[in-house]
Every structure is written in C-alpha cells, then in structure tokens.
Amino acid sequence: MRRKLQSAALHALLLVAAVLAASPLLWMLSASFMRQGEANASPPPLLPHAPTLENYRALFTSQSLGRYFANSVIIAVGGTLLGVLITAMAGYAFAKLRFRGRDPLFRVLLAGMVVPGQVAMLPMFLELRQLGLINTLFGAMIPVLAPIYGVFLVRQYALSIPDDLLDAARLDGAGELRIFRSVVLPTIAPVLVTLGVFTFLSAWNDFMWPLIVLSDDARYTLPVALANLAGEHVQDVELMMAGAVVTVLPVFLSFLFLQRYYIQGIMAGSVKG
Amino acid sequence: MTRPEDRSASRAAWAFVTPGLALIAVFFAIPVVGAFLLSFTDFDIYSIGDPANTRFIGLGNYRTLFTTPLFWTALKNTAYYVAVGGPLSVAVSLAAAIAVNAKAVRWKPFFRSAFFAPWVTSLVAVSLVWRYVYHPQYGPLNAMLGAVGIGPIDWLGNPRWAMPAIILVSVWKNFGYNMLVFLAGLQTIPEELYEAADLDGAGGWRRFRHVTLPMLGPTLVFVGIVTMIAAFQIFSEPYVMTQGGPLKSTLTLMLFMYEQGFRWWRLGFAAAVAVVLFLLTLVGTMVQLRLRRERTA
C-alpha cells in the first residue's frame, strides 16, 4: 500500500515537472495563433480566443522570414553534409591509415579541444574579411565544417573496423577512395548519423558567430533575424512567438523523429569522459 | 627503404586528413594564436581601414582591462552565473535523472524526452518566450506568483533579479542534457548494491548518500566541470533578454567582448578579454584533470 502511494506521488511529481518544462514551449505555440495584442492581458490568456494565422502570414510577407529560413537551411544542411564528410575522412585516416606524425598530430588536436571557440572569433573575423567571406553563408557555416570533437568521435568508432577487412579490399585491387566509400562509410554510418544530427542542431541554433559574420540583412539566419525582430517589435509578442515557432519547429521535428540518435548519442558518448 | 605501396598508402592518408586539418589550421589554430597576438596590439577601427595603423603595445590592453570597472563587473556577473547556475543546473539534472530512473516509474522514455526537449530549441527563440514569461505586467510567472500573494516582480528590469531570471532560463533549457548523462551513469550502478542497502534497512536518503553518490562520483565531476566551462561562455541569453542590463547587472564576459570587439571595433582590447576566457577555461580543465588523477590514484 505504502509502495503504491509512493509510486503515485512520484508519478504526479514527474508529471507536474514535465508540464512545467513543456509549458513555455506550449505557450509559445498558443500565443503564435493569437491576434495582435491579445497576449498582453492580465491574467495572460492560455489559448487564443479565435486562432489566426495572421502572425505567420505577416512574418513571411512583410518580414521576409522565408529568406531567413532558406539561409538557415542552406547553412545547416550544407554545413552538416560537408562537415560530416570532412570529419569522417579525417577520423578514419587517424584511426586506420598510417602516415608520418599521425599520433603526435592527433594529440595536438586533442589538446586543442580545451580552447573555447570564442577565443578564435576576433581574428577569424579579420581573416574572413581578408578572404572576402564576411557576409557569406559559407562564412557562417565554418564552425561546423571540421569540429575536433567530431574527428575524435569518428576515430574512436573507426578503430573497431577490422584491418583484415581493409586489407582484403586492397588485395582485391580496390583504391583507397573506393574502400572508403564502400567499406568504411557503411561501417561507421551509425556514428556519422549521430554526428550529423548534432552538427545540424548546432549549425541551426548557432547565434554568436552568424551574428558577427552576417551583417547584411538579406543573409541573416533565423536566430539572428529573430533577435533583430525582437529589438524592433518589442510589443508584438504574438508576432515574435510565431517567429520563435518557425525557428524551433525544424529542430524539434528532427528531434521527434530521430530521438534515439540524440539520446543514445549523449548517453553513449559522455560517460567515458 | 619504404615499399611503393606504403608510399601510396601514406599519400592516400594525407589526402583524407588534409581537408579537415587545413580547415582546423586556418579557421581555428591560426585564429587562436592570432587572438594572443592581437591582444598585444592597439588594433581598432582605424586598423580595419588600414592595418598599418596597428601598433604593438605589449601588455597595454591588459593594463587597461584590469583598470576598467566594466570588465570587473562582467567578470563578477559571469562568476555569479557560473557559481550559482552551474551547481543548480547539475543538481536539477541529477534529481531528474534519479526520479526518471526509479524502478517504479513507468513511461520512462516519455519523461526522458519531455525533460530533454528544451535542450534542442534555439536559445534566441526560447529567450524571447521567457522574456514574455517574465513580463512584469502580463507575464504568466507574476500571474502565478500573484495567485499566492507574491509580487509583482520586475524580473528583467530589476538589477537584483535579472541574473537569477537568466539562470532559471539556462537551467530549464540545459538540465535535460546532463540528465541523460547521469541516467547513463546510473544504469552502470549494479542493482546488488541497492539490494544490500535495502537489507541494511537504508532509507531513500541513505541509499542516495552511500550508494548512488559514490558510484556516480566520476560522472558528477565530469559533468560539473564541463557545465562550469560552458557557463563561462554565456552570451545569447543576456544578449536577447536584457542586453546586459539593467545597470549592467547581466553583462557577461562574452557580451563585453562582443561589444568591445564588434560594436566599438576595439579588437585588440577585446582579444585580451578572449585570452582571459581562455585562461579561465584552462584553469577549469586543469582542476578536472587533477580531480580525475586523484580518483584513479
């Protein structure tokens, strides 16, 4: 009896916590369908009186959110595809191919993981200015193109590829590129999916670097455009909530469908520390 | 004497690592070294026009930095955020992990996902949501507190409450990640240990104190340090929610660096702030390594 009561209490507690955790996101969704000014009431309304798509229409017409959405998609998808490919090649080579200086080089890379990315931002800005990459979508995707932790992640996984498998392919006369494509990539696919999911997430949500590197309004990503919008339309809560929904929705959907990659990725990767 | 196939294999290897290494060198290693060099110069808006206007000024930026009250304000605010937000975030994560992991709990995957969901959202987007939650007049938080007779509090407009408000947002957004790390750690604790504790008649708290905590020690240290290092880099929440105000009470190191570097274009001066961030991170990492060595020794 006492056990049952305890269990019920625990479930109630968890349920309340889950509702509290979800409430800001649910309210964001609800307010995005409210008429202009409706949210500014006391007490705050929980649901829209007469749901409207007006805010979304305004965002995609007068605020050209479609363009920012496209910029975000190009940066996140392009950065993820390029980044995963580059990282997979490097990680595999560090694990399975022999070349001079491989291990010392890898140790240097690992040591580099200590340095926070922000330390590099000021000189990187000047560098990109010299290269004419300021205000380009490519400039904004740079941080995800060759993450050191990604190289590390792929290398750890690729270490488990049996050498015999690679040698057999070589004996069959397969070139290194062919081996990479038809033997290595399929074998390390699981870690690449995990890496891809997290790369996409960090490219989509990144704020500080795009804010620095994209100065032209037409190149803004969703988070940068949203922060800008929030500065200009302080009072338009409903409009901002619709913008927030558009910004959050793609990663949220990806999370719903790829949950196990997110959750397993974190639960498997971190304990080793 | 190397065999020809060895040489071709090594060539292939270099072809595989070169794109990644080149990117890391050009867009990470060189800029990091550059940040140190930059911090010894007076690089400012005139240097952007013509780099020849840059002079080497030794430790000048650091001298200026350490006598700039705003820098100390930013450092103090960041330390507050790290010292309060870090432990709080870890504690909430641990509590959530233990609750979700309890044997009696059903729908574990549901709770796990519900608590983790905020972590995947864009900080800018949810900062805007919270800006409204904290609204002194219409915000749901004050409405709830008002119902029990508290408030109203101008969360983001009051220098005393602005940083706690930002800490609450960070904890809400991030605790799900560390919860998963703790869940993974909890699952490695052998069930027999709890059974033995039960036989000894240990209650919930003693089970936690004498079984869970010691077994989770390594994970706890790891999570604690990683959380702290990440906390030093806080930028987006104050940028969107308060712009560092009111009265600079939420001005953080990174916000200070951003404003000096990219609003006033004092890049040399801002680079000195970046070096300070690097040193703080280095100290944090060294503490972590020390703790880990003590554990294994």
Descriptive notes:
- The complex is a heterodimer of chains A (273) and B (297).
- Chain A has a single domain (63-269), classed as MetI-like (MetI-like fold), CATH 1.10.3720.
- Chain A is mainly α.
- Chain A has twelve helices and no strands.
- Chain A starts with a helix and ends with a helix.
- With 297 residues, chain B is an all-alpha fold.
- Chain B has a single domain (69-296), classed as Orthogonal Bundle (MetI-like fold).
- Helix content of chain B is 75%, strand content 0%.
- The mean pLDDT of chain B is 90.
- The chains are: A mainly alpha (273), B mainly alpha (297).
- Chains A and B meet through α1, α3, α4, α5 and α6 of A and α1, α4, α5, α6 and α8 of B.
Name of the CATH superfamily of chain B: MetI-like
Indicate the CATH class of chain B.
Answer: Mainly Alpha
Classified in CATH, the superfamily of chain A is: MetI-like
Oligomer: heterodimer
Major beta sheet summary of chain A: none
Anisotropy-based shape of chain A: globular
Radius of gyration from the alpha-carbon trace of chain A, in angstroms: 23 Å
* Total strands of chain A: 0
Number of helical stretches of at least 4 residues of chain B: 13
The overall strand count of chain B is: 0
Q: Helix- and strand-based class of chain B?
A: mainly alpha
User: What percent strand of chain A?
Assistant: under 5%
Radius of gyration of chain B: 24 Å
Q: In CATH terms, what is the fold-level topology of chain B?
A: MetI-like fold
Distance between the termini of chain A: 42 Å
CATH class of chain A: Mainly Alpha
